[in-house]
């Protein structure tokens, strides 16, 4: 590891490495610039950041620092990501928040401080929007009683959000004719979350490892569950799948903006993990779980001791049923 990387890793906490610098400080190489503790997003109405004696009208993705007061005007609202806490907070209308080293608090009328409402604990809980990652087998599928043996279908992708373009469902398939299932087919279904009737259902050859979803078959900003399953004499029950939804245009724009910002950070400081951490946090927030997992792993390549990224990788590997195998 070169000297530049080592120097960058000394700044801030191990949790977020050089991401603690603002984009401006990275580009200017100003080592004395105070570290960023997080950033604001989803701004609606008037949001101001009071830093010392300076009152700043905040914009989306504005970087906040420890000690900042975030003032949310009446009728306004925003969210805030706190890097060290790995939390996404909600800041309500007509409130004043203080950025502390390990959390964001709201000032109470009596002068007390209370931690702001946590919208999401980054990489430490299953995202409510996705629901349970892999629900238990129902006991019967295609008329065959479920077994408790390991499934021969695994590693479903995508698992979570997808952007524009054709949607290719893929999985690892370890079923073979030698298992006595030469006449068995694989069934793929896509069902709106909470409903019983599938919007897509297709029978595929036994050795299939992918299925292209027909264009226009799914609606944006709608949560679906997709599943690939096979059952028959000699193989028992096998199935895998996961949550699936098309990002809204607003979410796609947010991801695109973050990826552009991350590219700028990579150019400004090639040895930092700032861009990768920014992509990871945002990807996880919108449900791009596999993209988030890749980004967190990229952070660990640069900073193997990053405990926050390591915890995130462990959680997302469990959530998506991914192990750290080559090619994943």
Give a summary of the structure in a few sentences.
Strand 6 and strand 7 form a beta hairpin.
Any overview of this molecule?
This protein has helices spanning 3-9, 23-28, 249-268, 274-286, 289-302, 307-319; strands at 38-44, 47-51, 54-57, 63-64, 69-72, 77-82, 87-91, 95-99, 104-107, 113-115, 117-121, 140-141, 144-145, 153-157, 160-162, 167-173, 186-192, 200-204, 210-213, 223-232, 236-246. It is an alpha+beta fold and 328 residues long. Among the domains are: 36-121, no CATH class; 140-246, Immunoglobulin-like. A hairpin with a 3-residue loop joins strand 20 (223-232) and strand 21. The model is unreliable at 1-32, 123-149 and 324-328 (pLDDT under 50).
- Number of E strands: 21
Strand adjacency order, main sheet? 3-2-5-8-9-10
Shape: elongated
CATH H-level name of the domain at 140-246... which superfamily?
A: Immunoglobulins
CATH architectural grouping of the domain at 140-246: Sandwich
Features:
single chain; 328 residues; alpha+beta; Immunoglobulin-like; 6-stranded antiparallel β-sheet; 5-stranded antiparallel β-sheet; 21 strands; 22% helix; elongated; disordered N terminus
